[in-house]
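The instructor's notes for this session suggest beginning with a concrete chain rather than abstract definitions. Hand out the sequence below and ask the class to guess, before any prediction is shown, which regions might be ordered.
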Amino acid sequence: MKILVTGAKGMVARAVAEHCRSIGDDVAALDRTRLDIADREQCLSVVGELRPDAVINCAAYTDVDGAESNEAAAYAANSDGPANLAAACREHNAKFITISTDYVFDGTNTGFYTEDDAPAPLGIYAKSKFDGELRVAKENANAIIVRSGWIYGEGGTNFLSVIRDLLSSGKHITAISDSFGTPTFAGDLARRLRELVERDVSGFVHVTNSGEGSTYYGVACETAKLLGIDASVVTPISDADLKRPAPRPRYSRLASKRLAELGLDELPDWRDALRRFVKA
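After discussion, reveal the predicted structure:
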């Protein structure tokens, strides 16, 4: 199968490209210098030229706090871009999958958010991602919109991705203990995205590692345990202590109601995924 992956320099895109190539796909992984997804005509041209069977959009503006002062850039990447790709895939008969976020929810649900729950985004980043969801659904009725959250993996620069290296280097770290989500390993997410390409499905699908979820502090302590390090090197803090510009949902754990319909099993428990990442 021929797969076009956007945002090629990003952590998720690299995991997707690696997985797809490992199973024999012909992969074209393009970064922004080769495909600016905010440019509608360029999207139409590139998809028309490459003629992929599927496009997996991993390009995004992910600086949650930076989006508060860079609204135009956030909307260009997170709303205009996915909408443009959705239209190009409709035009050229390619399957389209784009990745959204758990942050489209406001965090008032202390349980799990499923595909049936109504979004209520808080900050600019979250609002731009939700706007992208709406526009993709309008442009392409066959598109798959995958919501995931707390994604980490090789080459990632976010907190969950660097905990392993920080602790391995002997550093003491602080971690938020009062925000709850579902940690998701990029390698597992990549596999699930490719599985969805094969299925006659559209609409929203939540993809995370299974289990009860955790806090950042919980993930940090589990990482320390896997490394054989005393968890006392991790200090819990409150989200409010950081005084960050963007609001974030306190609870953003995701679960999927569509797995049985899709003939898919749950992804491995987040602790198993973390173990594989830490031991890699």
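Then share the key points. The mean pLDDT is 97. The first helix runs from residue 11 to 22.
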